[in-house]
Amino acid sequence: MTHTVHPYAHRLGIIRDWRSRWFAADKKTYRENIVVDETIRAFLKKKLRNMHIAEIEIERSASEVRVILHTARPGLVIGRSGENATKLRKELTMAVQKVASKHGRTIKLDIMEIRQPETSAAVVGMMVVEGLEKRMPFRRVLKQTVEKVMAVRDVIGVRIVVSGRLGGADMSRTEQIKRGRIPLQTFRANIDYAHQEALLPYGVIGIKVWIYLGDQFAADNAPASASNARAK
């Protein structure tokens, strides 16, 4: 029988690093850190749903918790003169204090811009979500999105799978579109994966996205270019 593995977890310690980086000295601290991490991620995903958030990283030191947001729309997150970012940090601090009253660390929010949104599976998934929630035909949304992603030089392959009551049908089904190649079992393959959900009146549509960006032979090296990978 086959065993499906998350493409990100499959490459941890090889070409990927943990998205939460901290050390806990005892079980109580460990439990508290896990709860705080989950609270931070859930709050930001709900609050910034349409901001094209690709990744949330969390780092801890003795005095602060550093939250790194990777987004394709940094201007909307930061706001004019940084007012949105300041308000977001205050609300995030209050949310953390509700679940961990003795937390003690200050929350620091860093916002990083994604230069090429089409190379991020999470952002591409949100593009599909926006198209479906605007009642556009799902086949047109998939085709336009895949063409836009494959137009980027660094992208070698892309696969998008949608499942649910597509087009408002009575019975749910699964449809997919694929261009290029997606070597899921190759550890050095730099594959970005994300899962998103489109909330429609007749139900939830699940979207899965895989994007292959070439081979990466070490954690500190950049992925191989698309032209080199195609030449092989």
Report on this structure.
The structure is a single chain. The two termini are 31 Å apart. The protein folds into two domains: 9-113, GMP Synthetase, Chain A, domain 3 (2-Layer Sandwich); 117-231, Ribosomal protein S3, C-terminal domain (Ribosomal protein S3 C-terminal domain), CATH 3.30.1140. Helix 1 packs across helix 3 and helix 4 runs antiparallel to helix 5 (138-150). Helix content is 32%, strand content 28%. With 232 residues, the protein is of the alpha/beta class. Strand 7 (189-200) and strand 8 form a beta hairpin. Strands 1-2-3-4 form a four-stranded mixed beta sheet. The radius of gyration is 19 Å and the shape is globular.
CATH architecture of the largest domain: 2-Layer Sandwich
Number of DSSP strand runs: 8
Helical proportion, percent range: 25-40%
Order the strands across the largest sheet as they lie in space. Answer: 1-2-3-4
Rough outline: globular
Which residues form runs of ≥5 with pLDDT under 50?
222-232
Tally of individual domains: 2
Structural class: alpha/beta
- State the CATH topology of the largest domain: Ribosomal protein S3 C-terminal domain
CATH class label of the largest domain = Alpha Beta
The biggest sheet, with number of strands, parallel, antiparallel or mixed sense and barrel status, is: 4 strands, mixed
| Average of the residue pLDDT scores | 89
How many DSSP helices? Answer: 6
Order of helical and strand elements: EHEEHHEHHEEEEH
Strand content bin? 25-35%
Ends apart, CA distance between termini:
31 Å
Radius of gyration: 19 Å
The CATH superfamily of the largest domain appears as Ribosomal protein S3, C-terminal domain
